[in-house]
Amino acid sequence: MVSVDKAVIARLVKGGETFEVLVDPDKALSYRKGSPISIENILATSEIFKDSKKGDRPSASDIEKAFGKGMDFLQMAERIIKEGEIQLTTEQRRKLTEEKKKAVADLISRYAIDPKTKMPHPPQRITNAMEQAHVHVDPFKSEKEQMKDIIDMISPIIPISVENVEVAIRVPLEHAGRAEPVLRRIAQVKKEEWTSTSWIVVIEIPAGMQADIYARLNDVTKGSIETKIVGETKL
């Protein structure tokens, strides 16, 4: 366990009640990002508090109502760390927010396009629009959870639309064996047909991902694919 003096609060509000544990801020943040750290090594104490500053503890009935029966302390602490809010230092929050802002811009660049040109916006253009719109990025929410609201906020600044496109792709038979597994991993196959000379497949993808997918297919087929957009759907 970590020193209480260096610990911060991880807080989860559930069912109208507050539950807190004391954690190492760096280890808790790394755990939230997916690092395989044991819960024991993140915690500073073996207690759940209602208000850790006052030393108040929740009642057994409040704990059971929020977490159910049969859940031990470490399981409850894990829930609080995973789902709750972790107090961070100013520098930690700034760094985490910048990382999340970049991740959101990258995601929007893959899923959204300029409806006039049908081309994706570069991530930096999206980041600039986010700054102009004074977008607040939540460092603890996933990129997908925030994407729609952020697109709505930046749409007055840059023309932007989230669309899926259906693309017909013709792959010469000699390259189909390499192209097929690549394509099935990165796109939804709607239709396909095998002929004596080609594999013809229709896929549905976010409009902004076209260039990336075409590049991957051209890499494994030596630039021999043919593509054609056969449908569009606004999301």
Topology of helices and strands:
Layout: E1 8-14, E2 17-23, H1 25-32, H2 39-42, H3 60-67, H4 73-83, E3 85-86, H5 90-111, E4 112-113, H6 123-132, H7 143-154, E5 161-172, H8 173-186, E6 188-194, E7 198-206, H9 210-221, E8 226-234
Antiparallel strand pairs: 1-2, 1-3, 4-5, 5-7, 5-8, 6-7
Helix pairs in contact: 5-6, 5-7, 8-9
Labels describing this entry:
single chain, 235 residues, alpha+beta, five-stranded antiparallel β-sheet, three-stranded antiparallel β-sheet, 9 helices, 8 strands, 43% helix, elongated
Rounded radius of gyration (Å): 24 Å
Helix/strand structural class? alpha+beta
What gross morphology would you assign?
elongated
Strand tally, please? 8
Termini distance?
A: 47 Å
Helix content: 40-55%
| Number of helical regions | 9
Unreliable residue runs: none
**Largest sheet features:** 5 strands, antiparallel
In terms of DSSP E residues, the strand content is: 15-25%
What is the mean predicted local confidence, pLDDT?
Answer: 91
Helix and strand string, N-terminal first? EEHHHHEHEHHEHEEHE
Oligomer: single chain
